[in-house]
Each structure stands twice: as structure tokens, then as C-alpha cells.
TrEMBL record:
This is Alanine racemase. It comes from Methylophilus rhizosphaerae. It is an enzyme of class 5 (isomerase). Its EC number is 5.1.1.1. HAMAP family: Ala_racemase. Residues 230-354 form the Alanine racemase C-terminal domain. The modification N6-(pyridoxal phosphate)lysine is found at residue 34.
Length: 355
């Protein structure tokens, strides 16, 4: 067996959920588990997050998987339904839906539900991705409010810039202008807003990335925000080279030694989801000691500098990211964000829930 494995910590998930409640003590929590729980495995993550008040997913199939695993929480379809036919499953599995355009509104109004649905009416507060325009919002709200198919309405928006300090001012002004007179509950905040925009917390917060122990805010580390990494991507050394000054490692000979260098070849590459763009110098840990990658990442392997880790040998454990190496540090070195790396771990990497 190749030594690569992703360990998923249930206690870290529970800890991060508790941190959400500390940041937003007056809100209920919708744990966002879309994208296979940001790459952690939907049902793995759901176990660690079972104390949440609700879940949010993208596809009906994910919602059905949660129901079939026995979860009776409210489950929100974050982009609503994609066709009128999906109303049958919404009704059968008692799912909550986002309504973000007139077509979705009509599909909900036209279907004969057995059990009325909780609908999240989405306002475009300036991100210009999904949602009703402010001028159309009141009319859509009136139609939902007068429909027997709707049990409860939640007013919803999503922020484009909650990760920058003053990033929600304009959007919040739009939310206030359009919804202030309304008696309904509200759901506005993603992870960044949970952490640094307290006035957005409202009735339901929708954290994703922070539950997995990565940072939503580029300037702040996850550890400094009180978050614990949930995934440890670990592998092992499968080869050792000693190269002389002037010799190189890997495709393209991108790293050339300027002194005698001991190189550990690690069983992890871009076909496992490790970013090919990670340059020489990306942090990595061998035998529990922090070091750096060397040269270009290949499909199945990468190289680590073990010159200063004399006890490293074939079989030594390697942490690609986890407690010693924040996924955000690997992401930053590679010009991306922790979200993308976590979601990109590939199916060939075995995943095990620990603790
Ligand atoms: C993905 C998503 C979230 C969670 O965002 P994070 O930045 O991961 O906290 C919240 N709301 C909506 C509508 C989303 O699509």
C-alpha cells in the first residue's frame, strides 16, 4: 500500500463548530458541507458536526445521502433546485431550499407539496452572482408569503467581501434598505463574516471553511482564530538521494543544489491533489520536523529537503498539511487558498476518520 492517507479528526470538527458558536453566540448554525464537505467526505464531516442546527449542501444527492444516513436536521440546498422535477425530492426528503430567481420561485409555487417547505429568499446585495435584485425582492417575498407551499421564510444574502475589514458596509446597507421592515428571520454570514463582521450574524450563520480548520481571512492564520485543522494529509518517504552541488532534482531540474543535499522522495503528487504549482520552499514536515519541498511536484511524487533531518529514512512519515504544516501555508506558497487544496484531494487518497 502506498503510504498516503488523509486523516479526518472528528474532535477537530466538533471543536471548530464550538468556535463558531463562540463567535456567533446568538445565532443558529448551518454547517456548510458542500463539495463533499470541502473534500473531507460528506458523512465523515457530518459525524463530527452532528451538533449543528442544520446542514447545507449543493446537490440533492448530497441531501439524500445525509437523510439516508439518518440525519434529521434541516438540510438547505444552497443553490435551490435546478429544475421543477426536483420539487418531488424536496418534498419527499423535507429539504429547505434557496430561491434565487423567478423560475425557482414558480417551481415552488406550482408544486403540490405534502409538507410545506422552508424557503430562503436570496437577495443580490452586490456580489452579482445569484439572488433577486433589490427592486424585485419585495414582490418575490409577497408571493412566497401567500403560498400554502411555504412553511417559513428566511431572508438571505451572501457577501463578496466579508474577508476584508470594511467589506460588508455597502451590502449591509442594501440588506437593511430591502428587508428592514420584514418580520422574517435572516441568514447572511459565511465564515469570514462569522469571524469579523458581528453585525451580520443574525438568526442563522452559514460557516464552511472555518469548520474544517482553515482560514477564511488571508491575513490571519487558522490557529490565531482558534481553529484546529481537521484534515492531516500524510504520506511517507519512499526514496532517498544525496545530491552534490550543481545537481538537480525532478522534472525541469527546477531545483539545483548549491551544497551537498539529502533529498527525501515522498509518495504524494498532483494526482493526489497536491498542487503542482507549489514551488521549491513550500513547507512540509518529515519525521515531525519542518522543512521544504525541492523542485517540481510530479504526478505521484515530490521531493523534500532532509539534509537537516539525519534520522529520516525510507518509511519516515511525512505531513503534507495538518497540524505542523497549515494547509493555508501550502496554499499561500502555491498561489491559492486552503479551500481549493482541501476540495482537490483526489479519490485515490484513502480517508480515515480518527478520534
Ligand atoms: C460556500 C458558501 C458558504 C460558506 O462559505 P465559507 O467561506 O466556506 O464559510 C456560505 N454561504 C453560501 C451561499 C455558500 O455558497
Amino acid at each position: 500500500m502506498r503510504p498516503i492517507v488523509a486523516h479526518i479528526s472528528e474532535t477537530a470538527l466538533a471543536h471548530n463548530l464550538a468556535q463558531v458558536r463562540r463567535y456567533a453566540p446568538h445565532s443558529r448554525v448551518i454547517a456548510v458541507v458542500k463539495a463533499n464537505a470541502y473534500g473531507h467526505g460528506l458523512l465523515n464531516a457530518a459525524r463530527g458536526l452532528k451538533e449543528t442546527d442544520a446542514f447545507a449542501v449543493l446537490n440533492i444527492s448530497e441531501a439524500v445521502a445525509l437523510r439516508e444516513a439518518g440525519y434529521q436536521h434541516p438540510i438547505l440546498l444552497l443553490e435551490g433546485i435546478f429544475s421543477a422535477e426536483e420539487m418531488a425530492l424536496v418534498d419527499r426528503y423535507q429539504l429547505d431550499i434557496v430561491v434565487s430567481h423567478h423560475g425557482q420561485l414558480q417551481w415552488l409555487l406550482d408544486y403540490q407539496v405534502n409538507i410545506p417547505v422552508r424557503a430562503y429568499l436570496k437577495l443580490d446585495s452586490g456580489m452579482h452572482r445569484l439572488g433577486f435584485q433589490p427592486a424585485d425582492y419585495q414582490d418575490a417575498l409577497n408571493q412566497l408569503a401567500s403560498s400554502g407551499n411555504v412553511s417559513e421564510i428566511v431572508l438571505m444574502t451572501h457577501f463578496a467581501n466579508a474577508d476584508v475589514p470594511d467589506g460588508v458596509t455597502q451590502a449591509m446597507a442594501t440588506v437593511a434598505r430591502v428587508t428592514d421592515a420584514q418580520p422574517y428571520q435572516r441568514s447572511l454570514a459565511n465564515s469570514a463574516a462569522v469571524i469579523q463582521q458581528p453585525r451580520t450574524h443574525a438568526n442563522w450563520v452559514r460557516p464552511g471553511i472555518m469548520l474544517y480548520g482553515a482560514t477564511p481571512i488571508a491575513e490571519k492564520t487558522a490557529a490565531s482564530l482558534g481553529l484546529k485543522p481537521v484534515m492531516t494529509l500524510q504520506s511517507g518517504v519512499i526514496g532517498i538521494q544525496e545530491i552534490q552541488a550543481g545537481e538537480s532534482v525532478g522534472y525541469g531540474s527546477l531545483f539545483t543544489a548549491d551544497t551537498v543535499t539529502r533529498v527525501g522522495i515522498v509518495a504524494c503528487g498532483y494526482a493526489d491533489g497536491y498542487p503542482r504549482h507549489a514551488p521549491s520552499g513550500t513547507p512540509i514536515a518529515v519525521n515531525g520536523v519542518l522543512t521544504r519541498t525541492l523542485g517540481r511536484v510530479s504526478m505521484d511524487m515530490l521531493a523534500a529537503d532532509i539534509t537537516h533531518i539525519p534520522d529520516a529514512r525510507i518509511g519516515s512519515p511525512v505531513e503534507l498539511w495538518g497540524n505542523l504544516v497549515p494547509v493555508d501555508a501550502v496554499a499561500q506558497a502555491s498561489g491559492t487558498i486552503g479551500y481549493e487544496l482541501l476540495c482537490a484531494v483526489t479519490a485515490r487518497v484513502p480517508m480515515h476518520v480518527i478520534d
